[in-house]
What we know:
The protein is α/β, with parallel strands linked by helices. The protein has helices at 25-43, 61-72, 88-95, 135-146, 167-170, 177-184, and strands spanning 3-7, 48-52, 78-81, 109-113, 116-120, 153-156, 192-195, 202-206, 209-213, 239-244, 251-255. It has a 6-stranded mixed β-sheet with strand order 4-5-6-7-9-8. Strands 3-2-1-10-11 form a 5-stranded mixed β-sheet, with no helix packed on it. Helix 1 (25-43) runs parallel beside helix 2 (61-72).
Amino acid sequence: MARFLQLSDLHVVAPGTLASGRLDTPALLRKAVDALLLRLPAIGPVDAVIVTGDISDDGTTASYDRARAELDRLGLPLLPVPGNHDTREGFRHCFGDLSFIPETGLIDWAQDIGDTRVIGLDTLIEGQGGGLLRRESLDLLAQALEGAEGRPVLVALHHPPLRTGIRFMDAIALENPEDLARTLTRRADPLRIVAGHVHGVFHGHLGRHSVCTGPSLCSAFALDRRADAPVGFMSGPTGCALVDTAPGGVWVEVPLDHGDGPFRF
């Protein structure tokens, strides 16, 4: 088994600026890490941190430096994938010291953590909001699945292979979930797909495989499926997730503001 924290959609900005003109995302990330450091003893042992994209909001070197400094405070191995707000150059500046991050090209990787194979896939189309899985990424996925030999598998990517019903987010979704589904048919046992991008918790399936999206550390999107729903974000709820790959293990949301208590029943 292995246990992972999933952090997503940090949207860190350079000093002196606010994400979307409103969110002090470096401060929000610092507050989130502080909260997690206090709660890790209760959560239990964690083997690594999966970061499902949008580490930076503006692509600046300063934003990536701030993000990495905060993430390193967790003292856990980092397993990041890029999101649509990231740039590959900035991402490599931030995480290029990690041995499994490719020096050039797409940022796809596979790592074994405990008995679990974690596969990170690059869906970034630089300069656009939507995502795409290229043939190279799907080939790496196929090879990594063949080498998993029946062990638990966790696939991490930014754009989830599902639709939320939120119009403005579905307009910038993953373009080719069917290609991912086709590649995953070679895996007989169910695996888990974790993603970000949609700033909220959505559960679904891609064939026999479960899909879970993590909340953002900085903002949320209202579940409003009306055709004339306003385009914009909410300041919360924010959170992250805990993923356990043991038999019977669960994906569970970890709210960052979980109220007072515990109180006796």
